[in-house]
Amino acid sequence: MRLTCWTADLIGAAYNSGQLSAFDLPEVVVAGRSNVGKSTLINVLLNRTSNKVAYVSSKPGKTRSLNFYRINPGKAEAPFIITDLPGYGYAVRAPAERKNWFDLVNSYFDSKRDIQFVMHLIDFRHGPLAGDMELTEWLDAMGMPRLVIFTKGDKAPKGRVRGMYQRYMKGGLTSILPPLVTTGRNDEETERLRGIIRKIISERMRDLRVPSS
Ligand SMILES: Nc1nc2c(ncn2[C@@H]2O[C@H](COP(=O)(O)OP(=O)(O)O)[C@@H](O)[C@H]2O)c(=O)[nH]1
Ligand SMILES: [Mg+2]
Fold first, then answer.
1. Which of 29, 30, 34, 35 to mutate to test the pocket of ligand 1 (most atoms within 8 A of CB)?
2. Which of 36, 84, 160, 212 could bridge across to 32 with cysteines, CB 3.0–4.6 Å?
3. How far is 183 from 61, CA to CA, in rounded Å?
């Protein structure tokens, strides 16, 4: 199996809507509850096990900022941005903090940006929780394409993975493509995800090309 090599630079962070920078590149968003594995997935996509790009913590609610990573996928492919949203749903959060989260994320989606789709991370062990359903409804109402990516698939008993997956899907979980099950490791599922991102970004670039007359 050939694994892709992407590199990245952290090019911006915002703690409030006034700090949101605009970039002239397509964006792919990573969203999910606190501690679901957003930073881990970004590091895995970049094949970083040590020297991590995105900050990973075992304590929920650590990343309160929205972070922009510029991805340089290689010579033949166009660069794009991965946006790491602050996590939601951490129980002990104060109302003021929740409001800050909403204001920041709402301004982000409201600003003029070339957002391609949202990778909605859901813990495979729990399936979609209340906060995940709220995000789903919100994104659907915006008409924002959403790809479900399960995390921590490695923590579910092996023999139950298929059954759990089917149960979530029967429960009405929607996604632009069949949800992936990731494990926090650079494996075939990660490579499949890179392929999906690559395809969406390249098709978007094709759409933007001025037709020759
Ligand atoms: N076993 C396992 N652990 C994971 C996985 N994804 C994340 N973690 C762990 O979950 C914790 C939170 O991860 P992090 O990426 O910081 O979550 P974030 O708050 O969504 O950015 C860390 O201890 C990670 O090592 C996964 O797929 N499998
Ligand atoms: Mg994080």
1. 35
2. 36
3. 21
